[in-house]
Amino acid sequence: MKFDTVIIGAGLGGLQCAYILSKHGQNVCVVEKNPQIGGCLQTFKRGQQYFDTGFHYIGGLSSGQPLYRLFDYFQLLDLPWYQLDTNAFDEVVFGEKSYYFANGYQQFADTMSEYFPHERANLKQYASFLQQVGENIFHIFDNQSTNGVYNQSLFSLSAYEFLQKSFKDETLRQVLSGTALKMELHAETLPLYVFAQINSSMIQSAWRLRGGGQQIAEALQQHIENMGGTVLKNAQVIGFDENESGITAAILKNGEKIEARHFISDIHPYELLNLLVNSKFIRKIYRGRIEKLADSFAMFTVNCALKKDTIPYLNRNQYIYKTKDVWQISRHLETTPQGVLISYQTPKDENNFTQNIDLLTPVSWSEFAQWSNSKPMKRAKDYEDLKQQKAEQCIGIASQYIPHFRENITKIYTSTPLTYAYYTGTRQGSAFGIKKDYNNLIYTILTPKTPVPNLLMTGQNLTLHGILGVSMTSFFTCSEIIGKINPFEYKK
User: Fold this and answer.
1) Which end of the chain has fewer beta carbons closer than 10 Å to its terminal beta carbon, N or C?
2) Which of 477, 454, 465 lies closest to 24 in space, CA to CA?
């Protein structure tokens, strides 16, 4: 088989690249090693209930906002999106005190000022700063140079130091950082831009997807195939053929070869290098650089199936903390959970009860590394015991804030870094890809280009993680093949 472009990996970035290129007339093939596409968008089903893996909520999906305009381009707006409570889409809990995050920059500042009236002026200035960051995203595509697509100055600044300088109240600094289990809070490395852009997006508007994140992947696949593209499942790439000009074909595990003019990798850069062991284009210095890059922490997830009509649906996320310093969590991942994100599955109907609740907490790969050579469902008893222990700890924390939670759980399912690494191909089960370091910006932010002339990369490991970051990166990747693309100028 021969195509214009072959894409390795059917995560969000790979599927979006396939959509963009197909829309521009290319004959595209996506190859996915697993029987299910979607990467971290995958859902799994047990009985009559579905459970999400890595997708729980997104921001900026109201009309005119960045993700709305991107998803309009990708024909994803017709999915059953469910908006969270605009007055309290997130709740941060320290001890017995709750702090609610409101949508809208002005409303966010006003609501937070009720808790911290002495910081009102600083909160208004902070909200204005987030708004500027959010609006600047529309101008990023005016400059298609991948070294300058994001605000370099904000990427080179420390998120932690910014908060220290912006607010006098330490509790307020902790609260504003408290919704950030969707990134790795590391004081010595986290760039201000990552912190600001993700928080800005959620403050614009916050949404869940009724029915699970798999619908995004399946919708993209359908659109790709409708435009003549191909999506192959159970098709593992094990290597490449190349000549003096670059790669000529991807070699599948079954021996089949798929030829193309261009290739895009949506897998972890480290795993990509494992497919390029004999490539004459990959020098030792480049291989060493990729191998030394640190990954962000992993997540442990407890999916709790519930008795019917027992736990009322809560239309917001809860971030529950046992620690007073959320920036220290990444330093103590092997202790008992210090913070838990609680996510309620949207009701199937209007009865206002949830059928399952997900609990997520950061963990270290090292806790589970001893079982890394084993496969799912075939791991040792001590691994199962560790999972049960951590699940009980997470449930214990959540039970303090969800009345009658424990007694109404019918079944729990757990996912560890090993689970994520096996099913999504992320190195060490990393939740947010390669760790970005504001001290070493050029080293930790990757461009789509690789040393192989016709091989590009895409996905969360390059610049910015999350649905918004990956969606934007897919355009930067495709621009290297078909020229400048501005999705915000897209007209149906």
Assistant:
1) C
2) 477
Angle value at C-alpha 476, between 83 and 260, nearest 5 degrees: 115
396 with 404: CB under 8 angstroms?
Answer: no
Instruction: Report helix, strand or coil for 243.
Output: strand
Structure tokens belonging to residue 11: 């995560």
Secondary structure (DSSP) of 13-34:
HHHHHHHHHHHTT--EEEE-SS
- pLDDT at residue 362 tops 90: yes
HSE value, Cβ hemisphere, 13 Å, CA-based, for 63: 0
Residue 477 main-chain phi, psi, to 5 deg: -65, -50
Q: Taking phi first (over 0 means left), then psi (-120 to 50 degrees means alpha), and beta for anything else, what does residue 427 get? A: beta
pTM to 2 decimals? 0.94
- Please name the amino acid found at residue 296: S
Judged against a pLDDT cut of 90, whether residue 358 lies above it is answered with yes
Report the run of H or E that residue 5 belongs to, with start and end. Answer: strand 2-8
Question: Which is more confident, 374 or 203?
Answer: 203
Supply 325's token pair.
Answer: 């310093």
User: For the chain, how long is the longest CA-to-CA vector?
Assistant: 67
Nearest to 90 by CA among 58, 124, 51, 63: 58
CA angle 206, 207, 211 (to 5 degrees): 165
Of 196, 191, 195, 200, the C-alpha closest to 156 is 191
Nearest residue to 191 via CA among 170, 161, 166, 148 = 161
Give dist(CA 445, CA 437) in Å, integer. 8
| DSSP secondary structure letters along 97-111 | EEEEE-SSHHHHHHH
CB-count exposure of residue 426 (10 Å: 0-12, 13-18, 19+): buried
Residue type for position 2: K
CB 69 within 8 A of CB 490: yes
Question: What would the DSSP string read from start to end of 451-488?
Answer: SSTTEEE-STTTS--HHHHHHHHHHHHHHHHH----GG
Angstrom distance (rounded) from CA 8 to CA 157? 34
What SS3 state is found at 320?
strand
Measured CA to CA, the distance from residue 467 to residue 182 in angstroms comes to 11
